[in-house]
Here is the input.
Amino acid sequence: MLEIISYDQCQAHEIVELLRQDRVVMIKNLTPDRADTLVSELADLLGLTESLELQAGFAALYGHRKRIGKNLMTVNERSNYEFITPHCEGDGISNIQFASFYCYGNSTDGGETILMKIDEASPDLPILRELSTRIAPGSKQLSIQQAALAKALYRLRSPDDYLRAGDRILGQRKTEIPGLVLLTVLALPEKAYSRLLDKSLHPYWDTIASIDHSSAESFTHLLRQNGLLKSGDALQVTKKMDHTAKRRIWRSGVNHAALFSAKMTLKLSAGDFIAYNNLTWAHGVANWTPGCGIRRLAAAFA
Here is the structure.
C-alpha cells in the first residue's frame, strides 16, 4: 500500500499511475520547491489544476491556513496535546480528489501522520451522517442570480437542494436572501466520483468525521492502544485534546474498526512528501508533548 520513491525517480506520471492503484506514495529527500512544483504537475495530469488553485485561494481567503509558495499551505495550528481525528479533506461539495503533505521538519516525540483506508464494504457506512444545508420546503423560488449566490454563500450542492427524506433537521440558518429558508441537517452521505479509480466511493469527509463524538472516542482508543497518545503526567484525556471538539454534535456509535480496512502510521521526516487518494484514505495526526521539538508540515489539495 505504501510506495517509497527516491528523489531521482520522482516522475509525476509514474506517481499518478501508483495513485490509480490506490497506493500511498512517499518521496524522500524532496526540496520544498520541487514539492511545490510536483503538486502542480500531478494536478495537471489529473485535470485538477483549477481545483488546486481554488483550494490554495480558499485557505488564504478564510485565514485558517497560510500559503507557502504557490500551492503548499500550512497545516492547521493546534494547541498543546491536541490531535486531529482521521478524515478526508473537504466535503461532498468540494470533492477534493487527492491530498499531499510535505515535511520541513518533525523532531517531536509524536506527531505521527496516520492514514486509514476506508472499507467500501463496511455495513456501518450508512450509519454515518454529514452536516449539510438544505432548502426548506415552501421556500421562495429564487432567480438565477439568487440561486447562484445562495449556492456560493451557503454551500448548497445545487440551487434546488431541498430537504430530503432521511434528513435530520438541527435548526434554521439565517440568510441574507429574502424569502429563502435554509435548514441545517444531518444528511445521509452521498457517494463521490473518484477520477483516479473511475468509480464512486464513500469518503469520510471532514463534515462527517468532525461532527461525530464516536470519531474522537475511537481515535483516542486507537492512539492509546498503539502507544501514540501523549497526555503528560497530570493531564487526563479530555475534550481539550480533540482539535474539533467544539464541532461535534452527535454520536453515531460507529467504531473505526468498522469503517477502515487498513491503517498506516508514518513519522514524516524533513524532505518527505506523501500523496494519496483523498476519497479512499482518511488522514489524522497523533499529538505530541509541548516543547519537545518542532513539527512543520505543509499541505496541498486538489
Observations:
- The helical segments are 12-20, 32-45, 49-62, 144-154, 206-209, 213-225, 256-259.
- The chain has a mean pLDDT of 92.
- The chain has two domains: 2-125+192-301, 131-187.
